[in-house]
Records
---
Amino acid sequence: MKQISIPAGKKVYFASDNHLGAPTMELSRPREKKFVAWLDEIKHDAAAIFLLGDLFDFWMEYKTVVPKGFTRTLGKLAEISDSGIPIIYFVGNHDLWMNGYFEEELNIPVFHKPQQYKLNDTSFFIGHGDGLGPGDIGYKRMKKVFTSPVSKWFYRWLHPDWGVRLAQYFSVKNKMISGDEDVHFLGEDKEWLVSYAKRKLETQHYDHFIFGHRHLPLEIDLNGKSKYTNLGDWISYYTYAVFDGTELSLVKYEA
């Protein structure tokens, strides 16, 4: 379990699901500026920042090419990372194809699976959340196909102008962005990430489970000693979580 110590007066921040670039670069620009303003505010007391995936609506790294745009976000992340504040990134289902750029250019570690952290004396299980828990067999199969080395090798043979444009088209059509059937609370018994967290607790205790992906700000008590938090998004809710070393809170950002 990775350890992060939080100095007095400092906090740890968590955010996810910005989907920058959706539905177009121009329409997502105000959301990007709002997110950058938030980063600029929290850098003054951040001990660490966790970004839990889908920062971009599509991200594909070719050998020498990355998608155009997002200059404000990447510049602010570089500034914060260069200042010595650790930023930890978890890939989501829209940015599965990260492959070294964040690590090499921004000094930001990138994880493709959930990780366990201890912040001071509090334990956390952290991940994007896609493909976890029961059900959603179709997506799990699709993810295996998309993340296979063979699929990535074939896709890279497309010229970036075609590859990025094609992926952006299908990404915007994703029901998590263009529709709302999956962004309603299903009830605790039907929330698959809640079920996943409860099963994990059968073998090991965690004080907090933090996920993104569902686009809903949620706080659910699991067993009286552990809590599940979903971070919401930066499309409709502009919510994030903050841990002050003792308490975890879900907060709405007001610019």
---
Amino acid sequence: MRHDGSIAHMVRRNGSNPFDQPLWRDVLRDLMGHVPAATAAIGLGLAGYGESRTVTAQQQEAVRHAVGCRIELMNDVAMACAGAFAGQPGVLLLSGTGSMAWATDGAGRQCRVGGWGSLFGDEGSAFWIGRAALAVMTELLDGRRTADAGFLASCADAMGLPRQPEACGAALLEWYGTLDHERSAVAALARSVSDLAERGCPTAARLMTEAAGHLIAHIEAARRKFPDVALPWSYAGGTLRSSFLRGAIAARCGAPAPPRLPPIGGGVLTAARLAGWAPDANWINQLARTLDAAGLGS
């Protein structure tokens, strides 16, 4: 970014999540190789950073000697929080394939809630919703559940599967057996569940309401960690594009604050401050417009 909030250089690369991208080191090193020589500072948000000492050390090693400027590494959700509140107090709720909340008191203290991954948690995430929907489908196919019979046809339609139970079951197993990336494919089903909930499907509404309950627990736990500070909440991640889900959370936690900057903006803002720019509100607003025009908005 330039001083005027415009983009000087932009490169797009694949994800670098060390938990599901085997070539994540190559992605990071390649990305660092495209950093312009005139760069004053970098704010880099990395999935998993600070969560595992081993992974964090590997991430630091991957970028340590790649650039000559000042660089601050942070968790990608911390970066999203920095963008959403521009350094002010708040709780950033993220729900995408996984789920996590990150809170800051605006004075340097931070905390994390959730983010344990699909084996231990990720409650309320897109993966959690998709897996719950698949569980209902398989119970209906087996005859273990009868109360939600209409949900089977709705999900089958959304997934492009036949409605007839026997054919649907065979097609569902075929779908599962040919997946290249299970978590992403299952998480993608959350959008269909949200659409069904918004169209009045009671089963889908129940699943989305249960997901909201888990995400509400994330916000409330984060707020309890900083009881002396009023913490508004904001959001990031594809799951929270669902108006049904946001509405269910808002009923308990209050209306969300619109993110001031998208997640990548938190990295840019961190770099600007690291470079000594002291960005003000006008600069932050200009940055938001720039990122949105570049297709990098939330």
